[in-house]
Amino acid sequence: MKYSNATNYALHTMVHIMRLPEGNTIGVQELAEKQKLSPTYLSKILTKLTKAGLIESTPGVKGGYTLSRFQKDVSFLDVINAIEGDTNLFNCSLHHEGCQIEKVMRDAEENMKEELANQLLSGLVERIEEQHSKPISKEAD
């Protein structure tokens, strides 16, 4: 099982956007620099996230991207579906009804989707914020 690099970048992009102070935006150039990506490539990812309603785009000099006001509880699955689409990871190549291998694979996939749906990016952002707020301890030499 492997998600595309675009999904990886989309998840990181969403975390950057969610960490913005309320009312602030961030431009594609700054987001691209943070992830060492080309702005053109990241723009395609941002377009998908915008079309999915996860983020909003504000044009202009002070414009940029911000979290959609309707999306406070974005899950990992929301972002994955925005980038990858909602397709099955496994399909039986024999195309016969009642394939038990396909059933096992679909059940496993549903369990994974349920877990990803339960993992909210807001919880991840909270953990990141906590981690960054802790002082760095020096070990005794």
Straight-line N-to-C gap: 44 Å
What is the β-strand count?
A: 2
Major sheet size, sense and barrel closure: 2 strands, antiparallel
Succession of helices and strands: HHHEEHHH
CATH class: Mainly Alpha
Share of residues in strands: 5-15%
Find the CATH superfamily: Winged helix-like DNA-binding domain superfamily/Winged helix DNA-binding domain
CATH architecture: Orthogonal Bundle
Q: How many domains make up the coordinates?
A: 1
- How do the strands line up in the largest sheet? 1-2
Give the low-pLDDT segments. none
What is the CA-atom radius of gyration, in angstroms? 19 Å
By DSSP (H or I, 4+ residues per run), the number of helices equals: 6
Structural class: mainly alpha
What is CATH's topology name?
Arc Repressor Mutant, subunit A
Shape: elongated
Can you give the helix content as a percent range? 40-55%
The average pLDDT is 88
Describe it.
The protein is mainly α. The protein has a single domain (5-133), classed as Orthogonal Bundle (Arc Repressor Mutant, subunit A). The chain is built from 6 helices and 2 strands, in the order H-H-H-E-E-H-H-H. The chain has helices at 5-18, 28-35, 39-51, 76-84, 100-118, 121-133, and strands spanning 55-58, 64-67. A two-stranded antiparallel sheet has the order 1-2. The longest helix is centred in the C-terminal third of the chain and has 19 residues, at 100-118. The mean pLDDT is 88.
